[in-house]
Task: structure prediction
Amino acid sequence: MNRDSNIQEVKSATLLRFNELWKQNFRANQSAIKRNPGVASLKNKLKNLPGIVIGAGPSLDKNIRFLGQAKDKAVLIASDAALKPLLAHGIAPSFVVCLDPQEDITKFFKGAPSRGTTLVAPSIIHPQVLDLWEGSVVFYSKFAPDIATLTQIQQQAPHLGHLTPGGTVLSVAYDLAFQSGTDPILFVGQDLSYPQKKTHSREGENADEQLDATFSRQQENIVLETDINGRKLPTLKAMSVSKQWFNWAFTTWKREGAVEIINCSEAGILTDHCRLMPLSEAIYKYCRKKINVAWTLKKALNRKR
Result:
């Protein structure tokens, strides 16, 4: 399929589905937005610290055991769906990042202890997520200049700062890692495809979702992409668009000093403009020095507050 038509199709479906919900959630979150800092307070605060961006793709099961070795030696930035698998292995991430405005994502937080972890949430997050969260909260505006509703919402809270969405929650997680200055930036569990018989990590809330059921339900949205081994893998149009977004971000975004981007998922379709390396090797090479991420964050967020 034509890639431009995929992008337009995904964008139109998003607008149709979420336009009113964005407005409703933003109104409900006004009090919390006033009480808590924005992502702008984290700009360059984690400069030159290794960052690990963690998704909940099937490949996470292979690599999650190595993440414990990076504890207190890297900034762990997890997607909401990756939180429970990490906690099951005794790993509390520095950040948990959300993107979806729907109530359904509360399943990722119910029964999950969150003290000591910072939630990075859009200003249009569903308010029930905030009710469940026990730790610190940092808000961001979704930067989408071609979507009028999100632009209007951003203009109402310009102090927050923004993150740029690219179809999946790991797009804003990457933007957080990039803006805060982490280097290198490692990806784990970033499949953006269905390389095995399952759709998500076996310890996540979506573990019971069957691949056949997904294909049947999403039949019109399935496309093929080439994975790191040169094989054609099925994926959703939205995740194919997200791959394009990462290619754009990797080649377009600039900051002071180069940033090294390494995909350590050992699976999936994120192959361009980044290095490929096993996670165990990357942790041994880049995560050797003890760092106090909690203290650095507390200092940055308290000052901003």
Q: What stands out?
A: Residues 3-28+40-298 form one domain.
